[in-house]
Each structure stands twice: as C-alpha cells, then as structure tokens.
Amino acid sequence: MSDRQPPAALLRAAVANLAPVLPVLTDLGERFAAAGHELALVGGPVRDAFLGRPSNDLDLTTSAGPDETERILTGWGSATWDMGRAFGTIGARRGATVVEVTTYRADAYDGVTRKPVVAFGDSL
Fold it and tell me: What is the Cα–Cα distance from 92 to 82, expressed in whole angstroms?
C-alpha cells in the first residue's frame, strides 16, 4: 500500500456513508451506461463521505455531452435545468435529491477573466 491510498477501514466507512444515496447512484449509473456513457461521483459528496457527513446534492461527471446528459436526466428527474451548458453542467431533481452532472472537461484560464475556456473530454 502506498502512502497515497487511504486505509481500508477509511474506504469502508466512506462507502457505508454513501449507503443512503446508493440507489440513486445505481439508477443513474445504469441509465448512463445504457446510453453508452460513463458516470462517476466526484467533488463534495466524495469529501463528505470520507468526513461522515450526509450529502443529498450529488456532483457527478460523465462522458456524455450536455445534450445527452439532459436527455438522460429528463427521463430520471422531476425537473432538469441548464446550470451552464457551455461548461457542460446540467442539473436535475428527484424528490429531495439534487444532482449536477458535468461532462468530462479540461479548463484553461487566460488570467484576464474568471471564466475558463472549456474543452470537453472523453475520459476521466
């Protein structure tokens, strides 16, 4: 085990902390996979799982483009919205759960503006 890998007990605890949202993650993962895309949990929910905090707002990333993401989320949620299509992010709500799904991307900043130049990618 390298110094960069968390201990197995910490990983087990983080996965256990995700138990309440696993049905949502499984459902969304199956929907994206059926459409030929990858989906990964990222950001705050991952941090919260390691810290033992609940997270109903889920940040995900995908190989699907924003239009395809919106199509998939429309079939899943009760509401969808464009959080920043140019940046690859589409949001959706189902019950109390909110998801933000962003297409794989690389950002570059020009030093003049806070808005990045975004290039969509096809791998995590």
Answer: 9
Top pLDDT among 40 and 124 is at 40
Q: pLDDT tens digits for 68-77?
A: 999 999 999 9
Q: Return left, alpha or beta for 119; rule: phi > 0 is left, psi -120 to 50 is alpha, else beta.
A: beta
pTM: 0.86
Length of the chain: 124
* Whole-angstrom distance, CA of residue 36 vs CA of residue 98: 23
Tokens 């140019």 sit at which residue? 86
In angstroms, the CA 124 to CA 5 distance is: 19
